[in-house]
Amino acid sequence: MSRLGYSASFEQFHPNDLLRWCQLAEQEGFDSVLAADHFHPWTPEQGQSAFVWAWLGALGVTTRLRFGTGVTPPIGFRYHPAIVAQAAATLEAMFPGRFWLGLGAGEALNEHIVGRYWPEPAERIRMLIEAIEVIQKLFTGKVIRHEGTYFKVESAKLYTMPEVPPPIIVGTAGPYMAKKTGELCDGILTPGASDEKLRMLLDRFARGAREAGKDPERMPRLIQVHVSWAQNDEQALENALREWPNGGMAFPKGDIRNPEDFQAMARLVRPEHFQGRVLISADLDRHGEYLQHLIDLGFTEIYVHNVGRNQEEFIRAYGRHVIPHLRWPADAPLAHAPRVAVGPAGDAGE
Questions:
Q1: 14 tagged catalytic
Q2: Active site residue 325
Q3: Which of 46, 48, 247, 296 is the least crowded, having the fewest Cβ atoms under 10 Å away?
C-alpha cells in the first residue's frame, strides 16, 4: 500500500485543476492528499488561493483518497475553533475513515486580513492549544461551554457527528509544540528540514506522547516535502526560482503580511538558497532515495509538493518510477486510524 500523498498547492493552481490532478494521483498510486489552507498565495505570480473547505467535499465524492488540511489555523482570525470542529466533523461523517484535521498556528499572510492585531509566536501557540481544547470538547458530541483566555463558547453542540471523530494532526516545526502535540493530539505534521531537526521533532513528539500514556509508535508522523522535478535539472531549477521562491527563504515567514512583500524578497533568492529546503533534480532515483530516507527516519506518511506547473507529468513520473520502489513498514500507523480519546488540553505555559 502506498503511503505517499499528493500535496495540493492552492496557492498556485485553480481548484478544478487540482481536483483533476488528485484523481490522476489516485490512479497513479498516491493514496492521500494534503490540501493547503490559504487566503493569499505566497507571491502574486503563483496566482491562486481558493477556499479549501469548499473543495474538500468534491475531493471526497470524486476519489477514494484520504485527505486533510495542511494546515488550518483555528486561532480565531479567519476561523473560530467551533466552526473548524463543525467542518471537520461533517467531512468525517460524510467520508468515514478518510479525513484528518490538520491544524497549525497560522501566518500573517492569511490571517491579518480580518484587521486584528497579529500576536507574537508564543501567544499564537497558546491560542492554538486552547483552540484544540475547544475542538476536542465539541468532538465529544456533548453540549459544551468554554470560557478561556482566548475563546468563549456558549451552549454549543455538534449535531452532525461521525462515529469516530477525525484525528487531529498538528503542523509544527518547533520543539515545544512538537511535545505538546504528542501529549494532546493524534499525530504530527512537519515540513522538511535537516535530519538533526527532524529527529529532534520526532523525539519531542514521542516524549510528549509517552508522558500522556500513549504509544508514539502507534501515532501517525507526517511530513511535507517540496521538490522540483522536470525533464532536466536546468528546467527544474528554473521552475523552483519562478514558481516557488519562498522555498528558498530560510527565515521565519509567519509575520510577513502580503504577497507583494514576498515578491520583493524573491528577487534575492539564489539557487544555493534552496539547498536542504527543496529537492531540485530531474533524477527520479534521487527523489526515491530522498523519500526512502525520510521513511527510514520514522515518518509514516510523506506528502510531496512538486513546485512546477508540470503537475500531470510529475504525478505520472512518480507513479511509475518512485512509488513502486518505496519500502514502508507494514505496521506504521496512518493519519485516518481511529483516534484515542483525549481530555481537554492543559495550560500552555511558555
A1: no
A2: no
A3: 296
